[in-house]
Fold each of these.
Amino acid sequence: MAQFGTVFCDHMSIARFENGSWGEATIQPLAPLSMHPASHVFHYASTCFEGFKAYRWPDGKARIFRLHDHVARMQRSAKSLHLPVPDANLLAGMVEDLVRKQLGDIPEPPSSLYLRPTLIGTLPNIGAAAAPSTQAMLFVLASPVGDYFAGGARPLKLLIADTIARSTEQLGSTKTGGNYAAALGPTLAAKEQFGVDQVLFCPGGDVQETGAANFLLLSDEEIITKPLNSSFLYGITRASIITLARDLGYRANERDFTVAELLDWAASYEAALSGTAATLTPVGRLVYQGREILVRDGSAGPNTERLRRALQTIQYGEAPDTHAWLTEVS
Ligand SMILES: Cc1ncc(COP(=O)(O)O)c(C=O)c1O
């Protein structure tokens, strides 16, 4: 399977906001977009997006994982950027229609169809740095993707960065391009300097998240992760893992913790990253102040594996969807 995110289905869904209201969504052949070069998004980064997956089950139908939670998060992102907020029905309908159209292109689990709704400000005004875009375009892309774990769940190595933030107070929980732009430089530098996979952003010692995933600690009894606040993205996978952990009898401890605590716990807790692409990926090593610290013995831990499977079996239709997380499309 090609590299994640580089192959697309041949249709997209698209809708426009003009004169104060959303027009009807249409499904069109995937094609370049034509836009005024003064469009707000190009100059003032008025953009947000979502990422989630649809799975094809043996019955030939598709199941979209937590569609309505992703739609709600996109609405919150749009609101925080003062972009026109798409109606939940409009956006969910665009995704479902596109999945229906491309049903035959969804590979079987563990592969899936990755869905990428994107909202951009299209007001042609380069004097609108301090004004919202009152025109917008919403489109949904679909991309068949393979198994992140093909070749095994290799434990990741993270650099602990305790002086820089991934984002800002205003936009930490908004899924907007600027946050990824801010994380890119530090991540590339860390890869080059320390050979790590990702940076764990811990400004002022507060353990937050990596560039594109949430961070969790796990033991046989407990999972620990940061409580929701405006500094980081509210991962849907994070929320799902917390729910499944509680179902399985773990204590889910949503609490702030520091780099010093993390380093103390590394010998006894498993660490993992959660996100749509990686589900739950083990973290085997941390780098802090030039020193490498093993997380337990550096290998993937049993609790990480157990919770990842608990999530995947629901997504693949091997276990009942007791939390009504799946939207069926046929
Ligand atoms: C910054 C950031 N944090 C966390 C996540 C995980 O979110 P989710 O589990 O909803 O994919 C993502 C990925 O979408 C992300 O980009």
Amino acid sequence: MGKANIPDGLENAARKPASAETPAASNRRRTMLLTRKAEFSASHVCANPALSAEENFAIYGSNANPLGHGHNYVIEVTLEGEPDPVTGMVFDLRELKEIINAEVVDPMDHRFLNREIPPFDKVVPTTENLAREIWRRIAARVNAPNARLKNVRLYETADLYVDCTGVDLAEDAR
Ligand SMILES: [Zn+2]
């Protein structure tokens, strides 16, 4: 189709100058991602109590061994926000470290997740479910006008990780 067939209005829209940027686009450019990393070691059994030992072994393999096995977990907690014009910070990094320690590392380090850390007495502590629980714990503590929790990345091993980008709290309450 030749250019001459484009109605005048559409042609003008396509030629809109770059300076006529929308406020939303401008906000996106100012937004930054801030990530803090932490490690903890914990043991777990991947087995659903509602299923038989045979069924659990078929689904989870040796991870269903009732005596458990351990992982050196690594978490990366990412906040999204605009740097404060006065402090130049998206979020206070010391506070973020305190939140991660208080909500995740201190309670979970060197623990048997299934026996010591609710809800894993009822919920299978897969990497996915553990990342959701970490999200739930940290999101409740990140209260800042210019920052929000964007992602929780949980490495179970060096070559396996899960990204949790949100939790449906209504679903959690069921
Ligand atoms: Zn495991």
